[in-house]
Every structure is written in C-alpha cells, then in structure tokens.
Design brief:
Helices cover about 50% and strands about 0% of the residues. It is mainly alpha-helical and about 110 residues long.
Length: about 110
C-alpha cells in the first residue's frame, strides 16, 4: 500500500479489477455472482495456482456459468431447435399469442 493513497483520493479503484462481484455495488447489495466467486476464491486460497486449477475446477466453472450463461444459452438454443423441428413436422402448433399475427389491442 502506498504511503499516500492516491487511488482513493482520485476516486479510482484499480486494485479490485480481479474480483468483479466483490467491488462496491449500488445500494450495498451483493453482486449476482458474488457467492460463486467467494466459493472459488475460498477454495483456491493458499493452494497455489497449479493445485487450485485442478482442485477448484467445479467452483470456477460454476462462477463462469453465472457470469456468462454459456450453458443456459446452449440449452435454450437446443429447445428452440426442437420446437422449430416439431413445428416443421406438424406435431406442435404454437399458440396465437406466440405469433406476431395477433389482432391489435385497443
């Protein structure tokens, strides 16, 4: 820590860029993925980088899923592909309110 805390005096927060969810949040609420990040950091604390990568992989994957939602997007894509396939085969007809051909409401 420097003798003069220039970051705080200038209103900068350069040291917390690694922990995205741990920074100060509006209204004092915790970030959406704060719990996952905390589990990941607690798991890897004191292990060293090599061991932490191997032993804390589930916690890291949970944190990354919470941040980026890649598995959720892939699942949604599969569901929509299945829906389109069933519509094409004639096994499923979407309700009227799912199409843009509704009558306009007054």
């Amino acid at each position: 820590m420097p003798f003069l805390d220039l970051q705080r005096q200038m209103g900068l927060d350069m040291d917390r860029w690694l922990l995205r969810q741990s920074t100060a949040q509006p209204y004092g609420n915790a970030g959406a993925c704060h719990a996952f990040e905390r589990e990941w950091v607690e798991c890897g604390h004191g292990l060293g980088q090599t061991r932490a990568r191997r032993e804390c992989r589930p916690e890291y994957e949970d944190f990354m899923e919470c941040m980026h939602r890649t598995k959720l997007a892939a699942r949604l894509k599969k569901i929509l592909e299945q829906r389109d396939k069933m519509i094409k085969e004639g096994k499923y007809v979407p309700p009227d309110y799912h199409s843009s051909q509704q009558e306009p409401k007054p």
